[in-house]
Model the fold of this input.
Amino acid sequence: MINLELYRIFIIVADEENLTKASNVLHISQPAVTKHIKNLENELNVKLFKRSKYGMILTDNGKKLYMKIKDSINILNKADLLFNESRDINLGSHINMLSRLFSKAISEYYKEISNSTINVTNDSFDNMLSMLEKQKLDLVLSKKFGEDSYNSKLIKFIKLGSLHDVFIVRTDSKYKEKIFSKNDLKKEIIYTPRKISKTTINLLKALEISEADSNIKNITYSTMLELLKTEDIIGIITKEYIKTELEANQLSILNTNFELEPIDYGIYYNTENYFQELQILIDIIKKETLK
Done:
């Protein structure tokens, strides 16, 4: 029986001419790519590539196979998406990150693959990465955490950009009358997301305080926005999440004499978990985010 997946992988390696690049495109480990190519060579009983300092170079037999099947594989890929039942994707994300940063990418994915469903899980980073390792999730959208918090040999991170935490107040706030220093803010009550969020960790680091010694109050993102409508408080939130509110002059950024350290964000995926719909979603997210 013909294993079409081996031929699909062969085409990508031939196009990229490099195992590392092919691995990144396929979102599987480099040893897995090598194994698939070796399996195809064993099935056909021919050598398809030769290694050189320039990368993976097609042999004469490899070139013949490439020319014969490339167009057919592309046609089959499109047919799969049109007529076959597409595989669903289990995605983990902080709810605000998904809705505020990735809604366009999700819409574009559904335009391309209408018979696939994205099942969303909202949980802590540790729980989502544990589910990703066990392949209960297919990818996780998150701010970047240290590699000591997950299995970095199995889980890889694709950086999409940086996020910026800011202190926010009402547009008519009394706090807008001055420029705050770190010492000033240590004396104020600051509303921030849950304790284990990257934003809270970033704040404690910047002010050089522990949560026990601070006036921090942990509330949800939505509760903070509601409270700002009725109370004159200081909150801290990711600037990119409140772009609409800032442009509509519904919120203001507090004036400070320092800036919080930017936080990288992106995609976490399991190198042992590859399927076509997942690759398409990742490619769309990268395209929409990085353009």
